[in-house]
Amino acid sequence: MSGRAEFDEIRDLFRPLTRGAKEALGLADDVALIPGRPGFDLIISTDAIVEGVHALTGTSPPDLAFKLAGVSLSDLAAKGASPDGAFLNIAWPLSWTALDRRNFASGLGEALAPYNVRLFGGDTVSTSGPFQAALTVLGWAPTGKAVLRSGARAGQVVLVTGSVGDGWLGLAASRGEGDFDSGDREALALRYRRPSPRLAFSDDLRELASAAVDVSDGLIADLGHLAFASGVGVQLDLLAIPLSQPAQRWLARETDEAQAQLELAAGGDDYEVAFAADKSVVSKIGERAKKIGLGVTPVGRVVDGGGVQIMFRGRELTPKRTGWSHLVDKE
Ligand code: ADP
Ligand code: MG
């Protein structure tokens, strides 16, 4: 594509996603310009996805857009930040048609609109390899009030939003693996393709939680990150972990219950929020979550020491793996 045609396409595809944001300067300048907000911290996170790694090869352009938006915004949700804008860095595969690119852009618009996230800018390249993109998301939190991983204290309760294990089951379901009813297979696959960032809960989280982490690698691994950052241990009650109905039906068919529960807790791709809060606010957390139709479940407690101790029917289990890592050889 020639330079001019390329710029025209970028404007055409992505200007609607700015939704008139002044910050974007019409996607016609070298930069975006974001006025500071007195009394607020700017909270920034970036996530990349690669087709074939974070999404199955052949995933539709709109589904790639939903995945990218979901995984990125989930980090803001876990910090108690209010989302504001985003920057998109994209590598279009040479095999994509103009319609594929348009479908991606409109999918991204659809994924960001419910959270009022406006596109402020980005960069566009092409690649002979698979689709890849990174979304940098910006949100605001009152100064000093963002919920970090490091605030957990012994004696607190550990909770998690929504349900755990669906992302991992959804990957298996999408690949045609596993034993699922067809309705469950579709529901789980959708959860994997289009995660829901828990942004509706972020104000409550900021008010009531003292530490939080987004559950992306796997609940056990991510609680390990929270424990490490806080200098504490976490005792996780495997049977307390909230499971969706499809996950419960999957579990009921598994012969080794402990191993199956461990797989769900280590699976990853949940995009829930795990957090620590004082015992005294647990019932209030439940009420607030109920108001927005979200489940929030106590799954363990913060203890002195380090690491994640996994309890199952009164005994301690040692998992073979705790979560997803790009750097570890696969089994
Ligand atoms: P440069 O010449 O410095 O690389 P560009 O020409 O790439 O700048 O960008 C021109 C404008 O288009 C900028 O406002 C930039 O933010 C915007 N832009 C380019 N690619 C994207 C994209 N994928 N999403 C959103 N905005 C984009
Ligand atoms: Mg550029």
Describe it for me?
It is a single chain. By secondary structure, this protein is α+β, with helices and mostly antiparallel strands. The chain contains 10 helices and 11 strands. The strands form 2 sheets. Strands 6-8-5-9-7-10-11 form a 7-stranded mixed sheet. It has a 4-stranded mixed sheet with strand order 1-4-2-3. Helix 3 links the parallel strand 2 and strand 3. Adenosine-5'-diphosphate binds next to helix 1, strand 2 and strand 3.
Structural class: alpha+beta
Q: What's the main sheet like?
A: 7 strands, mixed
- Quickly count the helices: 10
Regions with little confidence, pLDDT below 50 for 5+ residues: none
- The level of helicity is 25-40%
Distance between the termini: 43 Å
Are any ligands bound, and if so which? adenosine-5'-diphosphate, magnesium ion
Overall morphology:
globular
Order of helices and strands: HEHEHEEEHHHEHEHHEHEEE
Q: How much beta, percentage-wise?
A: 15-25%
Number of strands: 11
**Strands side by side in the biggest sheet:** 6-8-5-9-7-10-11
Question: pLDDT average, as an integer?
Answer: 95
